[in-house]
Write a sequence for this structure.
């Protein structure tokens, strides 16, 4: 069975970070919640709250300094970036149908966009049912992606 991780990239809002953690922990098939490059209040206030949430419910939490560590430290085989504004990106359903041992769904959780080096580590995808013009926040993107993945896993 594929191990699946939800990754919050560069979160700046403690509230968004906590909402993403709650979302990740609400899906039984998620193996861990990963925070990469937390900044500002998300790092100072949000991360301690997420740690308490993970500890209280026996869930996994990883905090990393860069996306490359998803492969280097956690040995995650496939990285999938959700980027709604990317016109040529395939729908996430078409990207994750590959037979992999581990998969990370990565959302932009703050104001810092993904750079080209980060994107080169994996695959770009989007949620085709969502607008490319009005990109939703990371929580909505993650929820839609995880719902699609749950249907594929059935």
């Amino acid at each position: 069975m594929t191990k699946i991780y939800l990754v919050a990239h560069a979160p700046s809002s403690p509230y968004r970070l906590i909402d993403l953690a709650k979302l990740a922990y609400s899906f039984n098939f998620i193996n861990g919640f990963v925070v990469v490059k937390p900044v500002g209040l998300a790092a100072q206030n949000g991360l301690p709250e997420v740690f308490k949430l993970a500890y209280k419910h026996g869930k996994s939490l990883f905090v990393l300094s860069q996306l490359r560590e998803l492969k280097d430290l956690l040995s995650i085989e496939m990285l999938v970036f959700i980027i709604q504004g990317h016109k040529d990106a395939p729908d996430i359903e078409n990207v994750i149908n590959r037979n992999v041992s581990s998969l990370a769904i990565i959302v932009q959780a703050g104001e810092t966009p993904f750079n080209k080096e980060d994107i080169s580590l994996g695959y770009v995808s989007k949620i085709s049912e969502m607008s490319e013009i009005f990109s939703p926040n990371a929580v909505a993107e993650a929820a839609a992606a995880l719902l699609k993945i749950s249907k594929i896993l059935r």
The chain has six helices and six strands. The chain has a mean pLDDT of 92. Helices lie at 14-26, 40-57, 68-72, 92-95, 116-119, 138-153. The radius of gyration is 14 Å.
